[in-house]
Specification:
The chain has 13 helices and eight strands. By secondary structure, it is an alpha/beta fold. The radius of gyration is 22 Å and the shape is elongated. It starts with a strand and ends with a helix. The relative contact order is 0.08. The structure holds NADP nicotinamide-adenine-dinucleotide phosphate. NADP nicotinamide-adenine-dinucleotide phosphate (NAP) binds next to helix 1, helix 4 and strand 6.
């Protein structure tokens, strides 16, 4: 049976707090670990949890360890703590890229009697209710009790309404290049492009109705998020480099098409986008949703 002593490494961060609250609700005794003492103490007091500045001590006592630190620090941290862990304990990370973490965990769980799992919640620290949100899972392996323990852990997530989908690290990183890195890039570039005009956004907004306004608000919500993580999601994923090459080609072709006033090419490009999205589940109601969002913005 799953022990209730849990350590969250990166416990003073956005996602550490979200998962701390979640596990606390299910009776776990939680110890938060991070480097900045003041922030850690403040978080621990606010959440009514224990804290520790001694990594070895809080790793050794834990039945479940969650690693919730930046993407580039996660592999080293996992390597460091695995040899210190209790027999049969669970180690899971929630970092946003998986290929490297997966190969390290695979090696560690064959070397030490621990259980490794790699998760990626498809939501951020702003979440209020997890119902119907997705948690991507990559099972790695461990002791004879692996399946039993992981099922217990999953039961907690499922009680919150989380939808668990399983994948491979390769598929995960390929998909994240498209579903995270691309929308982040497009919105960063949208603001970068508008900024070149030298016209303040408030002034531009006076001359707009719908599309610009909605896109602007979306971009503004992105640009207020976790800069370090957004950079890592793009820079640390080789799958995204391939998309950048593709993007360069698409933009260059688009430029030629517009400057040569090639209406056939434009219609073909537009039509292909339409065909691609037609089968999407949101397609039928997209225009309706658009005006629902507008209602909020026009209040
Ligand atoms: N934010 C999201 O929307 C989201 C969604 C899904 C997955 N994730 C993943 O969740 C992880 C955490 O993201 P977050 O948004 O919670 O980040 P965050 O708010 O920046 O928190 C990071 C936490 O890790 C600690 N930390 C940083 N470097 C560390 C190190 N080298 N050793 C020990 N502790 C360290 C920080 O405290 P100190 O600096 O004081 O040590 C802090 O407690 C990332 O891997 C990210 O990819 C994030």
């Amino acid at each position: 049976m799953l022990g209730k002593n849990m350590t969250i490494i990166g416990g003073s961060g956005g996602m550490g707090k979200v998962f701390g609250r979640l596990f606390q609700k299910y009776g776990f005794e939680i110890t938060l670990f991070a480097r900045n003492k003041e922030k850690l103490i403040q978080t621990a007091i606010g959440l009514n949890m224990e804290y520790s500045l001694d990594l070895e001590e809080c790793v050794k006592k834990a039945d479940v360890i969650m690693v919730s630190i930046p993407i580039t620090s996660t592999p080293q941290m996992i390597k460091k703590i695995a040899p210190l862990m209790k027999r049969d304990a669970i180690l899971f990370d929630i970092t946003s890229l998986k290929t490297l973490v997966y190969s390290i965990m695979q090696e560690l769980c064959s070397k030490y009697p621990i259980n490794c799992l790699s998760l990626h919640p498809m939501f951020g620290p702003g979440i209020k209710d997890m119902n119907n949100y997705v948690m991507i899972s990559i099972k790695i392996g461990g002791t004879n009790n692996y399946n039993l323990l992981i099922e217990e852990l999953f039961a907690i997530f499922q009680s919150e309404g989380l939808l668990i989908i399983t994948t491979t690290p390769e598929e995960h990183d390929k998909t994240m290049a498209l579903t995270l890195a691309v929308p982040h890039m497009v919105n960063i570039l949208y603001l970068t492009l508008l900024k070149q005009s030298g016209i303040p956004l408030n002034d531009l907004t006076k001359f707009t109705g719908t599309t610009f306004l909605l896109q602007k608000v979306f971009a503004e919500s992105i640009i207020q998020r976790e800069m370090e993580m957004f950079g890592e999601i793009q820079m640390e994923n080789p799958e995204f480099y391939k998309i950048l090459d593709l993007f360069e080609g698409v933009v260059s072709k688009y430029k030629t098409m517009i400057q040569s006033k090639d209406k056939n090419a434009f219609n073909k490009t537009f039509q292909e986008g339409l065909e691609y999205s037609r089968e999407d589940n949101h397609f039928k109601n997209s225009y309706k949703y658009f005006y629902e969002f507008m209602k909020i913005l026009k209040k």
